[in-house]
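Quick check before the chapter quiz. The format below is the same one you will see on the exam, so make sure you can read both the input and the output lines.
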Amino acid sequence: MTVIRIAAALVLRTDGDTLLVRKHGAVAFMQPGGKIEPGEEPETALLRELQEEIGLQLTPEELRPFGHFEAPAANEPDHIVTADVFIVEIGDIPVAHAAEIAEIRWISPKAPGDIILAELTGRHILPAWLHLKEDD
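Here is the expected output.
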């Protein structure tokens, strides 16, 4: 299997909802982010991807490391994604889809609703976030 290195964000609003995106031609929703280019740091890749995908301009100081996760890729058969994930709290700053993003959706991490989640999101990132919040 081919491994794809990505950087992704658990983008949180003031109300605790998190932002998920769906790319053109895909059915699964996932955290915004994308591939890390050769020689690029995960933080740099994520800042670039957030600007391109949802128009969010942040500084490295606004990224809080959350963890490293791995799962089968949602949109590429026989690929595995290995993700450096960062927490990004944006308050109520508006975001909009752009570039390869077809749709954005704010969801409750506890009850995402009737949408298809990428395995990385549904089985790893959201459960890890909920577990962390239980400890608060």
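If your answer matched, good. Residues 2-135 form a domain with the Nucleoside Triphosphate Pyrophosphohydrolase fold (CATH 3.90.79.10).
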